Amino acid sequence: DTAVSQTPKYLVTQMGNDKSIKCEQNLGHDTMYWYKQDSKKFLKIMFSYNNKELIINETVPNRFSPKSPDKAHLNLHINSLELGDSAVYFCASSHRPRSRGEAFFGQGTRLTVV
Amino acid sequence: GDSVTQMEGPVTLSEEAFLTINCTYTATGYPSLFWYVQYPGEGLQLLLKATKADDKGSNKGFEATYRKETTSFHLEKGSVQVSDSAVYFCALSTTNFGNEKLTFGTGTRLTIIP
Known about the structure:
The structure holds 2 protein chains of 2 kinds.
Chain A: E1 4-7, E2 10-13, E3 19-25, E4 31-37, E5 43-50, E6 53-57, E7 64-70, E8 73-78, E9 87-94, E10 104-105, E11 109-113
Parallel strand pairs in A: 2-11
Antiparallel strand pairs in A: 1-3, 3-8, 4-5, 4-9, 5-6, 7-8, 9-10, 9-11
Chain B: E1 3-6, E2 11-14, E3 19-21, E4 23-26, E5 32-38, E6 44-50, E7 56-59, E8 62-65, E9 75-77, E10 86-96, E11 99-104, E12 108-113
Parallel strand pairs in B: 2-12
Antiparallel strand pairs in B: 1-4, 3-9, 5-6, 5-10, 7-8, 8-9, 10-11, 10-12
């Protein structure tokens, strides 16, 4: 059983397109996150949702719109893709306060914008 | 704001060598501290954690001690194996108005040669 799963694993698309990445967790966690990992492996939080409510939005361009239809899902939609959006995007989940910050990560989605 | 500084890589060691990867942090309050590991092509996995001062986290032969006086959480292993080759991330978790957030260091790539 995959705890946190993301689809697709790889995504290659042209500049200007709109794309979505889906994330699902079967751990019963109440908090989900999106992180961006750049080419130098630096990881930065983008969004955090708790019980479907947006909690953290770290100065991400409004071309990025997360959507949480329920506690087990957090999707990321990106409009008008730019070259600089190329990165690996990780979904994660945790359970406040039980987890004390420990998060479980998906396998990542490698987005390449050409 | 919160930040994590870890040793720049890459680090290359011979099998059975002793490993230290330094990590220091800046945070308000009392963060939990983590080491995550990312194997090639995979997502991040929790390696070990410590939730309060003087706690020692350990797993798979790796250890790290939460040192409040030096704001450090250095990762050590007495005898590394080729299978330990990966990118290691130090991280801290803080809670702000009830919202948890993981802040990562820049990652240290470790390569073990036979």
